[in-house]
């Protein structure tokens, strides 16, 4: 795809491959969303899309990617990678930015199929997009956030060296809920061994990173 080379971009780790999904990947991702992402009593997302019935969750997971591809500009983009573990689609890891050329800041978000929880995949897939952001795109900072009862996400942020960056208040399922913000500085990041980026150079202009300082 000469006009949208991000489809050839890959980030690999010792156990994972992150890539923009094919249509077959999206089918697998939709099935995974229908199976379940978290316990029903929990809600880790600001927009509670997983409260929908399984068929609606599957359709939402499928359609989300088309919306992001269609809306992508160098000034504002969301790059939702599918995460492949042991040949299986395991979830989504996204990295996003607005005016990256100026701000040099990215934000991340993710979800993982429930049957893939507890294997350290969440840490490894977040590390993969941080490698892309810092070492590939030349980001200066990366942000993340999670509800205060989303202990798995909070643990990943702390494990990877993020610093506390404050608290936001939201309404979740009709009740008050807090999210904790985190910020990771480029100088606090060290890429783990065995991580690699493939096919990045043709994509840099789409990320607004063609003039960014990169390592």
List keywords for this structure.
protein N-terminal-serine acetyltransferase activity; Aminopeptidase; 215 residues; alpha+beta; transferase
Give the structure's gist in a few sentences.
By secondary structure, this protein is α+β, with helices and mostly antiparallel strands. 28% of the residues lie in helices and 31% in strands.
Structural write-up:
The chain is α+β, with helices and mostly antiparallel strands and 215 residues long. It has a single domain (5-203), classed as Gcn5-related N-acetyltransferase (GNAT) (Aminopeptidase, 3-Layer(aba) Sandwich), CATH 3.40.630. The protein has 5 helices and 9 strands. It has helices spanning 23-35, 54-71, 100-103, 121-137, 151-159, and strands at 10-12, 16-19, 76-85, 88-98, 105-112, 141-147, 163-172, 175-185, 196-198. It has a 9-stranded mixed β-sheet, sandwiched between helices. The longest helix has 18 residues, at 54-71. The mean pLDDT is 94.
What's the helix and strand layout?
Layout: E1 10-12, E2 16-19, H1 23-35, H2 54-71, E3 76-85, E4 88-98, H3 100-103, E5 105-112, H4 121-137, E6 141-147, H5 151-159, E7 163-172, E8 175-185, E9 196-198
Parallel strand pairs: 5-6
Antiparallel strand pairs: 1-2, 1-9, 2-3, 3-4, 4-5, 6-8, 7-8
Helix pairs in contact: 1-2
CATH architecture: 3-Layer(aba) Sandwich
Distance between the termini: 26 Å
Number of domains: 1
State the CATH superfamily name: Gcn5-related N-acetyltransferase (GNAT)
